[in-house]
Amino acid sequence: MNPNQGRIGQAILAQGLRHEYARYNAGRRSLVIASKLYSKKNRTPDDSDSLANGSNAIYIDKLYSKWSKDPGSVDQSWDAYFSGKPRSISSARQRQPKKRKWQPASVSERPASSATNPAPQADWKYIDDHLVVQAIIRAYQTRGHLAADLDPLGIVGPTGHSPATDDRKLQATRAVLRQHYSYIFNDLNALFKLPKSTLIGGDEEFLPLREILDRLERVYCGHIGVEYMMITSIHKSNWIREQFEKPGVINFKPEEKKLILERLTRSTGFENFLAKKYSSEKRFGLEGCDIMIPVMKEIIDQSNKCGVESVHIGMAHRGRLNVLANVCRKPMKEILSQFHGLRASDWGSGDVKYHLGLFTERLNRQSNKNVRITVVANPSHLEYVNPVVLGKARAEMFHRGDYQGNKVLPMLIHGDASFCGQGVVYESIHMSDLPAYTTHGTIHVVSNNQVGFTTDPRFSRSSRYCTDVARVVNAPIFHVNADDPEACVHCARVAALWRAKFHKDVVIDIVGYRRNGHNEADEPMFTQPLMYQRIRKLKNCTVKYAEKLTRDGVIKMEEYTEMVKKYDNICNEAFEESKKIKTFKNSHWLDSPWSGYFQGRDRLRVCPTGVNLKTLQHIGEIYSSPPPAEHKFEVHKGILRILGLRKNMIKEKIADWSLGEAFAIGTLVKDGIHVRISGQDVERGTFSHRHHVLHHQTKDNVRYNSLQHLYPDQAPYDVCNSSLSECAILGFETGYSMANPNTLVIWEAQFGDFANTAQPIIDTFLASGETKWVRQSGLCMFLPHSMEGMGPEHSSGRIERFLQLSDDDPDCFPDMCDADLVARQLMNTNWIVTNLTTPANLFHALRRQVALGFRKPLINFSPKSVLRHPKARSPFRDFNECSSFQRLIPDTGKAGENPDCVKHLVFCSGKVYYDLLKEREDHEQESTCALVRVEQICPFPYDLILEQIKKYKTAELIWFQEEHKNQGAWSYIQPRFDTTILKMEGESRGINYHGRPPNSASSTGNKVQHYSQYDAIMTGLFGELTEENKKRIKEIKEQEQKAAVQQSEASLAKAKQDKMKEGEKKAGEKKAGEKKAGEKKEGEKKEGEKKEGAKGAPPAPTGNANPPKPSAKAAPAAAAEPPTETSPSPARKSLAAEPPTETSPSPARKSTAPEAPTTAPSPARKPGQGSAPGNKPKLAQKEVTPSDKSNDKREAPKRAADRDNKQDKQDENESAKRLRKSEDEVTPNDPTSSL
Ligand SMILES: Cc1ncc(C[n+]2csc(CCOP(=O)(O)OP(=O)(O)O)c2C)c(N)n1
Question: Where does the record place the Transketolase-like pyrimidine-binding domain (predicted)?
Answer without folding.
Answer: 655-869
